[in-house]
Amino acid sequence: MKMLRLIVLLFGLTSFLTPHALAETLRIGSWNIQDFHHQRDFSLRDFGDFKSVKRQPGDFVALTKYRDLFGRDGSPADVLALQEIGTKAALEKLFPAKTYLTIMSPRWQTDDAAEGEGDVYTALAIRKDSGVTLIKEDHLPLLAVLHTDGRPTRAGTGALLEFQGQQFWFLSVHLKSSCPKNINLHTSSQDDCETHWQQMPILADWIASKRQTGIPFIIAGDFNRRYRQMNFEDSGWEVLNGVQPDDPILEPRLMAHPTTATRKCPTRKGKGTQPIDWIMLDPKLNDAFISGSYWERRFTRDDVMQTQYGKGLSDHCPISIDLEF
Fold it and tell me: For the whole model, what pTM was predicted?
């Protein structure tokens, strides 16, 4: 009888502890690795006065270091949204197949473009020992609208993933640049703003379609918009949240992180402290967000000085949040 009571007691204690004991943390990261090509001394893009940095061996070493330093505790991210990846070989150079499952943008075709004639793409990397399972790839090619000069913008690279029995959609985006704070995006006649505005209903439709599946979603990447500086009242943000410009947002479709932190990446000095890299959560995942977990992994002064004054790193620092399932 004593043994039976002990078993019942242990069973009850296990049941009480299970919700917390079985909880697992998932780290979501995002990183724009500026003009990232796999070869040394190779300029990926060359147009007008712009030329991509030619990375040296030490630059690749430094990038590998920061690949493993996401989060406050300095440990790797489990699932990463990546931007400005120039080649599949570059993606696999930094995120090797032994450790990571990688997914390149469907727009990517080859890695043998002549110097200066390459392009940049979105991508995903999933750490193989993270417990995350790839259910299927699910991309957003329509996001690659044509800019006024005829060049396509970046497509969205996405997948349906599963962690701890919870499925979620994950999308890496890199939206049109050079229109960071025009609050009236929908009426702007500036070329970059017009192109960015074209991308808004496409991304909004993706959000709406994912909500209909009942499976929560995460969108991460370089949005090239200072949403917080505009008090989340700009017309682009409104459309992403399912309303027309100037209409109130009654039921947000997106919970944006960082909520308060400023951007202090040393390689963007002089470009403002308002974030343009975001990790957006479906409100269904808001309770899973671990308060205070947002982190921008800033490059050290020594690494900036030793990597062509930071150019060999990136003009974006890695960001991450933690979710508890």
Answer: 0.92
